[in-house]
Amino acid sequence: MKAVFSILVAAILFVASSSVYIVNQWETGVVLRLGEIVEADVGPGLHFKTPFINNVRKFDSRLQTLDAAPERYLTSEKKNLIVDSFVKWRIKDVKKFYTTMNGDNRQAGIKLGQIIKDGLRAEFGNRSVKEVISGERVEIAQKIKATSESAASSFGIEIEDIRIKRIDLAKDISESVYRRMEAERNRVAKDLRSKGSESAEKIKADADRQRVVILADAYSEAEILRGKGDATAAEIYAKAYNLDAEFYSFYHSINAYKNSFTDKSDIMLVDPKSDFFKYFNRSTK
Hints:
alpha+beta, 3 domains, 4-stranded antiparallel beta sheet, 8 helices, 22% strand
């Protein structure tokens, strides 16, 4: 009797536990009856179901990230670009998600990745390499998001954000771009050197001109000062001579004697009666 009672209690507990299920805060559930959805968007909390007939599938309703592998895309110039992007998405309609994707996140990632690739292919195909690299990433991402939302919503998926992490040029394009950049930088450098040399020549020529002008002005001023000095000296000499012409002539002759004989061995062959020795001749009388 006790064994039967124990089995009965165990059966009741098993049935009761099979009738209760918990949906966590970050989850959304669907209740199935023989594989058919009878209730969708079951929110967080404690819930009951018919045991053995109904079963429950739970899905993560949090924001998820699909980080796709880098892909090659052609630009309008038929140049290859390697693009690395990611998508932020979440399950918006769990019933659609379960019906179209069989509740498989991996299958949803593959389908969503294809949608995003198609959008990237279309956007990059309408742009040149320069337009893509010059900073239109945000605009491209926004357009892809706008065009992809409709397709994604048909699978019960909401695209929250699309970001392009990196855009790399293919090796051959990179080398070509670098060569053009190098040539452009060399051209600019050459132009700057040319302008610098031209400016240097102008500065040097101006400095030489100023030097010539300054020297000419200085020489002219020196000559004027020298002329004024000579005129002043001549005037002083003339005034001194007019005060006492005889003394001035004597003083001038004495200085001439002094300057002519600087050493005892000096000899001068001059007629003693010449004007040079007139004061000596007078002293003998």
